[in-house]
Structures are given as C-alpha cells and as structure tokens.
Amino acid sequence: MVRTLTGRVVLVTAATAVIAVIVTALVAIPVAIRSVNTQARAQLVEQSKLAVELLASERPAARENIVTELRAQKVEVYLIRGGAVDKTGLPKRVVQQVAAGQMINTRSPVNGRPSFIVGRPLTGRNAGVVLTRAVSVGTGGKVLGSIWIALLAGLACGIAAGALLARFIARPIRRAAAAAGKLSAGDRSVRISRQGPAEAGELADAINHLAGALQVSEGRERDFLLSVSHELRTPLATIRGYAEALADGVVGPDGAEKAGATMLNEADRLDRLISDLLVLSRLEAADLPLDVVLVDVVDLIRAAGDAWAARCAPDGPLLSVELPPSPLVVRTDPGRIRQVIDGLCENALRVVPGGAPLVLAARAGDGAAVIEVRDGGPGFTDEDLLVAFERGALNQRYRGIRKVGSGLGLALAARLVGRLGGRISAGHAPEGGAMFTVELPYASRT
User: How many CB atoms sit inside 10 A of residue 112's CB?
Assistant: First the structure.
C-alpha cells in the first residue's frame, strides 16, 4: 500500500493516464474503422461509374482490362444481362433491383463475407454492373499498431507530470513538517516563506502564527514564573531572616512576639500564593470541584461587607455596601464567588489609600445578577484593562511603582467566574479608581 503523498499522487496520475490512453484507443479505433470503410465505399462508388462507362462501350478489350484492374484492387465485378447475373454470390434482391434499373449502395454478405455492394444499371438493356468489395478486417489492430507509440508516450508523460505535481504539492507540506519539528524542539524563531498556491500560503501563515503565539505565550509564561519566584522569595527571605535572628539570639524575648507575628503573616502570604497556584492549575485541568447551589447574591455581598468592614477600619478605605431591596437568586458556588470577591477586595485594599471609597454592590442586570467591586484608588489605564486578567501582566507593569500582588488573583477570578458560567470584566469606577463587574446568570426569572 502506497503511504506517501508523492506515491499516491503518482499512482493517481498514472491511473488517470492509463484510463485516458484506453479511452483514446476505444474512441480512435472505431473512428478509424469507420473512416476506412467510408473511404472504401466512396472509392467503390467512383469505380462503379468508370466500370459502367467502359462496359457500355461494347469493346471487349476495355471490359477485360477494367475487370482485371478492379480485381487487382480486390473488387469483384458482376455483370447482369437479361435479369441474370454472370456469377453466383450476389444477394438475389440486389440482382433484381439493378436489373429493374435501380442504383444500389449497400452492405451485405457476398459469398459469406460482409461486403460493400455498389450496383448501377446499364441504360435500356435490362442489365447492369455490380461491384463488391469485402469489408476490411483487422483494421482495429492496424490502427492500434500505428498509434501505440503515441499512447505509450502519453502514458509516460502522464506519469512524469504526476511525479512533478506530487513534488510541487508535497514541498510546502515538507516545509511545514520541518518547521513543526523545529517548534517541537524549542526553536520559536522558525518561519516559513509564503510560496506556492493559496493553500500552501495558508499553511505557512498558520505555522507562522503558531510560532509567534508560542513565542509570546512562552515569553509571558517566563515573565510570570519570574514574578512568582520573586513573590515566593520575598516572604521566604523575611521568614529566614527572623528565624536566623531568633536562632542567633539577636531578637530577645521582648521582640519574639513581633518576630513570630511577622513570620506568621509571611507564612500566610506564602500559603495564599501556593493555594492560588494550585487552584489555577486545577482550573486549567478542569478538575476543580464546584458545589453549585441556589444562592442569594444579596446575602452573599452583605456577609462579605461585614467581614471586610473590620479589615478596612480604622485607617483603611471607607467601605460601603449597596444592595437592592429584593433577593437576587442565582445557581452558583457561594464559596468560589466569595473567593473571587475576597481576592478583588484584597487587591483594592493593597492600593486604595486610607479614607478613599471601597464599594461592594449588587444589582439586578439583564438576565444576570451583577456584583460590583469599585474603589477610589489609582485605577487602570485603557491598556491595562485589555490585559487585566492575564497572569502576571499587571504585576510586570506596576512592580516598583505601586504595591502589587503575585499577579494570580485576577487570572484566578476570571477562570473561576468562567467555570461557573458567568462573566467578569474590568473598567473605570465612578469613584475614580478601578471597577470589577461579575455577572452571574439568574436561576430563574419572575
């Protein structure tokens, strides 16, 4: 079985050439036979005219000469006098028609052989002359013998054209395969020139776009890993420093409590970072368990507001909660939605100055319950909003400029909301800072 594209194309073109040759032969042979027979019949008609003129001249020598010459050309001459023919073999109806003064141009067996028959009457004598010529046999073989070289040449040209076509078709595929091999080996700079037909150009564009996307994705992944490693090193360095100070006796009993509290806070920070990484990886693997139940968003936001009020007082942002008078019931996982809200509030608490507003709001939207987290902090630019939910994007932009987290929180929020069938977006808040909007479809509308 032919497995390569080149072999299959050659096989197909060879088969096409063979079929074309066979069809050509099947068409050419009958046409050639018909042409030979038509020519033979026309020649017999002309010979009959000459024979009638010579036989009507009553010159025995002329009659003898014309009969001898026609027989040399494989033409038999039959003379009809008084309604009777001079030799046997002619069909009876032919003799009768010629004797009756009719012209005959037909095909019929003569002495058991298919023959052309042309008969002409002799004027006023109840007589006539009939010429017969056997239909040519073996014409098909002769025609095939004369054209077989041309047929073989056509077959060879078809196979050669198939090989060239296969090479032309397979070249861009081989280039794409080679580029894919380089991509799998880690070379992201590989690009394919856009050559050949439109389909080959589309294949080259697809490979080039894939290489570019991989290059960008790996660059972002590398930056993200650098950011995460930095975030891991910071609390680890703090914990190591205090631990060494305690071990060396640098921190006395009076400072042990403070050192322990600092180490505990940094350990909690590490725990949150590792938990976020774990949740993100499980979300990407689609194996994060979700407990979806009927939830009143109003109660959920009220509980979140009570919890964050203590964290904001006394010198933090001014927290306010905006709730509608009626319940907003949705089907979702309340624990995961609370995780999203807490993450957004923690991000705001990191950058919003004391006394600036921080708003938790819930309202009825078009087909969905809407949760908003708005603040009066520094906010985002329009360019920031385009990459707000990409891992580590904002961390890379604002590291060293403002307080930033690990860059995982917004990416985790977007994945969680998406898994729960909702939608999250970022924008500009009327309070002057950032606004994050979470939309959760209603369980039912009344």
Answer: 7
